[in-house]
Amino acid sequence: MADVAKVVDFPSPDGLKELEDQLLKLSRTIPITAEGLAEIAAAGGQLGVAAQDLPAFVEQVAKIATAFDMLPSEAGESMAKLANVFNIPVTEIESFGDTINELSNNTAAKATEIVEALRRIGGTAKQFGLAKEEAAAL
User: Fold this and answer.
1) How confident is the model at residue 30 (pLDDT cuts 50, 70, 90)?
2) What SS3 class is residue 90?
């Protein structure tokens, strides 16, 4: 949680403790440790996810990390970067993860490979006017 505290400005003094409690509760339902969830929160906070959006961001990215067999910190950083590049609101991250998963299930590419390719081409794809789904399909 120290990494989260360094990169997130909480609106209230109890904000960090509240997030910690939420992550502990979430760690009982998603197969990622509280430490892993904190890594996702830190990655999201470092890349601009607002404090009030962190719980939803962490939950959605944790599901993606589990489905894609990615390390929590890697999933957090990747999805936060993609959300920034493609202007994806926190509420749509899970849907974008579903798109990547669908592509992974129906092509020879693994989900982690699609995410890595998107991280590399995301900025260029956005400049060419490609939607996030079109870039993922490439």
Assistant:
1) very high
2) helix
If we measure between CA atoms, which residue out of 2, 94, 11 comes closest to residue 50?
A: 11
Structure tokens at 7: 């990169």
Q: What is the mean pLDDT of the chain?
A: 91
10 Å CB burial of residue 21 (0-12, 13-18, 19+) is exposed
Place of tokens 């760690």: 27
Residue with tokens 């961001």: 57
Residues 6+ apart with CB under 8 A from 41: 4, 8, 19, 23, 54, 57, 58, 76
Residues 6+ apart with CB under 8 A from 47: 77, 80, 81, 83, 84
At residue 47, the pLDDT reads 84
What is the token pair recorded at 115? 């995410």
